[in-house]
Amino acid sequence: MLLLRPVALLLALVVSALQGLPWFINVSERLGPGSVLQSFSFNCSSHTPTLDLLSVKPHSTFFNPPSLAKWQGTYVGKVTLSSSARLDALAVNHYELQLLYTCGTYVLRGPLYVDVLRSPGRVQCTGRFASPAGDTIQVPETVTPGARLYTLLLPGLEVRGAQMNIISAQDPPYFPGPFSINEHGWLQAPSQGLRGQAPKVFQLQISVSFGQGQSCQGRLLVKVLPVPASHVSFLQKAQNITVSQSMTPGSEVVQVQATGIDLRYEITSPVPSPLYSVGRADGVVRTTAPLELAGARGLGVTRLQVKAFELLQPQAGAVLDLTVTVPSTNHWPPRCLPALLVTQIPETTPVGTVLDTLACSDPDSAGTALEYQLWFHSPHSPASFSLQDRVLEVNATLDCDSPGACFQHAASILVLDDGQPRMTTEVPILVMVTPVNEYPPACTPRTFRVREDAGPLTLLGSVAGTDRDYPHNSIEFHASGGPSIFAVDRLSGEVLLLGPLDYEQQRLYRLPILLIDHGQDWAPTRRRSGSCTITIEVEDVNDHAPECEPPFQELTIYTFLGRSVEVAEVLCRIPQEPQRLAFSYSIVGGNRHSRFRLQGAVLVHSDPMSGLPWLGQPRTSELLIRVADAGPFAPHLSTTATVIVHLAPWRASTAAPSTPRTTVSSAMAPLLVTGTESFWQPAPWFVVVLTVTGALLLLALGWLLCWLLRGLTQVLQVPSRPAQALLLNSIQGKEEPTEGFLEAPRMELCPDLSSVSSLVHGRTILSSGDGSSLAPPSLPPPSLPPAGERLSLSAAQDARPEEEQDPRLHFQRRSDLDPAALLRLSLLAGEPGSTAAPQGGRQRKRKHIIDSP
């Protein structure tokens, strides 16, 4: 008994908690948004209960999440209609709401069924009649006057009191007479008829109303067809024919012919005809199935009625009775209709939906039981569909909201008979599941912060959008109104700054973001949208310097030894930013002997105790006080206030012990001087190009300088080459006569031998150009070679006298020479009086012989 008490208490709690919960309710389709569907109460004393709406079948957004409020110790729950609710009993008349009630650890889940009832007197125009194009009917011009041409079928017309009127004009010049419509929705032809009105088209605007201002309108087009006079007849009223059972489908059975103009043929009985068809234009009757099936179906004898009629007058014609006899003995596998099943269904197709029903039969034996088997060709299909007898239906929920979830299901239905041997028919099945855009995209509201000095195209952040439909990132972002200084990237959702910001004018912006999905439905135009709001906070940046009032002060104070005297208080503020109250103060000029200091914004003068008190005239100090904002934001702007202080010594005869102050306000407006330092900061690529160019220029200059120095060195070495050659020839000591040749290009000696050299008493005399004699100052008197030895200097010619050659100077040594003779020859070769002969001119041959004395 003790163990049963908790169970009893729990049962009592459940019963008390469920009291008043309506499981079935009926509502009218007239209820609008915000209407309360039902109220019910719950008891939950020890906890705070919750009531949630888990799902709605079929899916709808017409219902708000249930509310739960406490009233007089009992919790009252309400289910209401949302702002988008538009109940229509003709569209959906039953909803199933799954509710979840929670009280502490106790959880209860149950359905709430809502039945939508038709509202009497509600008129609704639907179908092609209410479309912009309207509905179209065709009538022959021979129609009976006043005949019923059209019946208007609309929901609500069964209620008495509905009024229908043709509100469009029916002018007599065009209309033969007015069309009329009665309270049953019957459109009747004019009383004058329509003969002679072909091929006119009459446009009728029809209004349907039912009390209390309810009405709707629709459009109807009446086309009048001409009916030419003609007569159709068969040559004979009945015809019998026997055909072979071996005829294949499409074989010609017989051709029927009638008399008339532009005839057409059709089989009016039986409809549909399982074995035969007739050519609409030629009247040829053909087989549509193997005739072996005729015996199994009891169609060994088939009676057909073939109608012949004129194209422009289908209501008039003639009928021929045709009897076809076929033997009924053969063996075939089962036959199924349809022979191939190809269908396309959306992913929201409910479980249990019938895709198709096979109609199979055994032609060998009517009424034979057949066996059906479903075979799948893909591993993911078995759980999706099932075959119940001959019915193929959806077996599981189809979902395309994950990668690879939407696909084609390929299967086959095998139909087996019970004959011997068993014969099988395979019906291929191809089911394609298409995606449906079920959920709108959503995003989370976020807050971005940006400095007020941020430049254009500054990235503030990205909007994170999500979509439960696949693909989950197929979302476009748009700014739905809001300030124009912000822009949203359509694909990435990045929020960019386009214009300037000002913290003092506006500190907070709200940017509505519209999200639109795409590519998530089989129909490209079926898209959903969502929205969220992005908050943008502007961070303050200091952009105003403080202003002091007054900017200039002049005061006179009396000083006391060893005492501090308060001089003045510097009052500053920023008019554009009154919220800034923190400033820093510093003395930047005029504080000689450091006798002034600042205590916050108060200027204080201190007179030291040491030293004698100074007497005499007052002294003046001109102080410059720098005032800068001390906030956490950069940059820090400042201004300078000027305080002129006249210091007067305190004397015993001073009448007033107090310190008088005189503040002189400047009549001039404060001047704010802003210094701007301009500098040039080149781009990195420019620095690299400039460095490479400078290096190449230095290399070119070094190569050019090296080339010039090398050429100068060669030029300086040319005059010394003849002497070096002579010296080299004289050093070579050989007994046999040796000739040395030294080339001196275009060199001509003076014609006067006295101007070249003279030997007097063993000394070498050099003659200058003016006939004066010059002796080498640095050389001692050389010793002449012995008698009989001579050195000849001649101009050598080529062996062939007829060729003109440039003159060459050749030194031929007849015998060994001493160094003194070589020295004289060197001086002679380097004489500045020698000149080069013109190019191409003939040179004179000269021979100088130096003999010993």
Low-confidence stretches: 1-20, 653-670, 720-728, 730-817, 825-853
Rg (CA only): 62 Å
How far from one another are the termini?
Answer: 173 Å
Instruction: Please give the oligomerization state of what you see.
Output: single chain
| Class by SSE composition | mainly beta
Overall shape: it is elongated
| Count of extended strands | 59
Largest sheet geometry: 4 strands, mixed
Average pLDDT, to the nearest integer? 74
What fraction strand? 35-45%
Question: What fraction, in percent, of the residue positions are helical?
Answer: under 10%
What is the tally of helical segments?
5
Order of strands in the sheet with most strands: 1-7-6-3
Task: List key phrases describing it.
59 strands, 9% helix, mainly beta, four-stranded mixed β-sheet, 853 residues
Describe the structure.
With 853 residues, the protein is mainly beta. It is 9% helix and 39% strand. The strands form 19 sheets. It has a 4-stranded mixed sheet with strand order 1-7-6-3, with no helix packed on it. The radius of gyration is 62 Å and the shape is elongated. It starts with a helix and ends with a strand. The relative contact order is 0.04. Residues 1-20, 653-670, 720-728, 730-817 and 825-853 have low confidence and may be disordered.
Give a nutshell description of this structure.
With 853 residues, the chain is mostly beta strands. It has 5 helices and 59 strands. Helices cover 9% and strands 39% of the residues.
